[in-house]
Amino acid sequence: MLQTRVNSGLDGVIVADSVMSEVDGEAGRLIVRGRSIEELAATTGFEGVAALLWEEFAPPGQGGGDEGAVREGLASARVRAFAEVPKLFAATKGLTPVEGLRVGLGMLADTELMPHHYLVCGALPVFLAALLRASEGKSALAPDPMLTTAQDLLRMIRGRRADDVFEHALDTYLATIADHGFNASTFTARVVASTHAGLISSVLAGLCALKGPLHGGAPGPVLDMFDEIGSLNCAGAWFDDAFSKGTTLMGFGHRIYKVRDPRADVLKNIVATLPQTAGRLAFAVEVEKTAIAALRRHKPGRRLDTNVEYYTALLLEALEVPRSAFTALLAVGRAAGWCAHVFEQKKGGRIIRPQSNYIGTRPEA
Ligand code: ACO
Question: Which CATH number is 231's domain given?
Fold first, then answer.
């Protein structure tokens, strides 16, 4: 007898054991490789989190558990990726930054000798910075292998080193969002990895899933929402109008979190450390309160709260990243998690192959 019960969003379906991260949606807690996200964000930068995620999974000597090796590996990979920038420019005219990254990853060869997790995690920041500078008519800046990913990325975008506080903010952001359970993009990467298609193809697939506004595409539209609201005394009416039109509020709601996403406060606290953000932060906090009140009124019983993308928007704005590049920047950090999941899938997983329930016509008997 064929089983025909459909679970269209795979809610609650568990398809793998994983040591990477646990998202506790009832308690609003996130654990990454045994450490709370609050502790990890306060103590460990992007390279450290990548080393932690890759521990026991990366091939021997390729950065698993060794932050120094990861830093060196990513620095060499950035230098290697810079050679691809002229080809990238030729193929990305008119594309958004995240579409540009899609092309850039697609150009990397499966035959490349450099470890592929270094290659993709090193290439993404180089490609992103080059694309952003090209959009302003500026030439690409070569990477500096003495720097960390966050330091070098800001430098390659701005043309000069940023102040410590900004570099630290970006590093904490990349570390905070590096992994998050079986989200849509990670799951996509694991499906592709389960066919043994290879790490670059798996990460590219993850990037494509990340791009959608319901996943990694949300933070740019959060700022669009702020623009539309304009002033605080218009916020209540704006939300009532939005619900009357069936608008989905960007930066709110989550499949797993039924309470506030813990990453929202980690990022909110970083924004507060940056100069000249007090006014914008106060505005965002008030808009958030009004949005939550409106969600309670218009969607009673749905348990919708603030997700990571709300304060991501504020943080990346404070770092002067153009909003069109927010999703691409998320990809720079999340790529470490995608690589870790590809390793884990390859190590113990089978091909992921669910079923559909056929409701079409049948041949006559
Ligand atoms: N605004 C308004 N209503 C919402 C929102 C929202 N942001 N999120 C969910 N709802 C409503 C739905 O309309 C639905 O209402 P209904 O029962 O009256 O039809 C109910 O809450 C349940 O929502 P679902 O769509 O079933 O929730 P699901 O788990 O499928 O979707 C998602 C989760 C995609 C994140 C959704 O909350 C959403 O679209 N949020 C806005 C986009 C966003 O911020 N995405 C970033 C998520 S974090 C990340 O991926 C990095």
Answer: 1.10.230.10
Could you tell me the residue range of the domain that residue 166 belongs to? 21-213+323-348
- For ligand 1, atom 30: residue with the closest CA: 255
Output Rg (C-alpha) for the chain, integer angstroms. 21
Q: Kindly list the distances between the CA atom of residue 88 and the CA atoms of 112, 125, 129, 237, 329, in Å, as whole numbers in the listed order.
A: 17, 13, 12, 45, 17
Cα–Cα separations (whole angstroms), residue 38 to 28, 145, 270, 280: 12, 29, 11, 23
Ordered strands of the 21-24 beta sheet: 21-24, 29-32, 35-36
Residue 130 lies in a domain: yes
Residue 230 has pLDDT above 90, yes or no: yes
Number of domains in the chain: 2
Please write the tens of the pLDDT for every residue from 333-351.
999 999 999 999 999 889 9
Q: What is the CB < 6 Å shell around ligand 1?
A: 9, 183, 214-216, 218, 248-255, 299, 302, 304, 307-309
Can you give the pTM of this predicted structure?
0.97
Nearest to 313 by CA among 249, 234, 255, 258: 249
Mean pLDDT, the chain, whole residue set: 96
Q: Are residues 307 and 342 in the same domain?
A: no
